[in-house]
Amino acid sequence: MNKDQVKGRVEEAKGKAKEVSGVLLDDKKMEIEGNIQKNIGKGQSAWGDLKHEIEKK
Length: 57
Known about the structure:
The chain is mainly α. Helices cover 89% and strands 0% of the residues.
């Protein structure tokens, strides 16, 4: 695993936690921020996955 994969998955988990907290607390702003953070993390981990595949070849 490279650093982009790790950082992306950490951000994805933090975003998901924030999103769920927003739902439970009925805080739309927190829910939206968590969703955005989660999706940014997904993008970063996907970038890391791509870099990993390129390095393997």
